[in-house]
Amino acid sequence: MSEKNKMAFSRRNYQLMLLGIAIIILGFVIMGLDSEQHGFGFMGITLGPMIVLGGFIFEFYAIFYKPKQ
């Protein structure tokens, strides 16, 4: 296979990216489930944003992951 036809990411990269998107969505759902007014409780201010940040960090890992050949 020539270098022109090679895909930018492997199948594993795309799987990891989808997992990262799911983690980000989970963080936003957790922020939305906060029972405090305007989301000012622990889930809306602390837990949800930490999970979203973790999801974005995982996305960087998924993009730079290089499978062993």
Question: What would you say about this model in short?
Answer:
The chain has 69 residues and is mainly α.
3D structure, described in words:
The chain contains two helices and no strands. It has 69 residues and is mostly helical. The two termini are 14 Å apart.
Shape descriptor: rod-shaped
Cα(first) to Cα(last) distance is: 14 Å
- Give the biggest sheet: none
Give the class from helix and strand content and strand pairing.
mainly alpha
Measured by DSSP, the beta-strand proportion falls in: under 5%
Unreliable stretches (pLDDT < 50, length at least 5) are none
Secondary structure tally, helices: 2
Structural features:
69 residues; mainly alpha
Topology (SSEs and partners):
Elements: H1 11-32, H2 42-64
Helix pairs in contact: 1-2
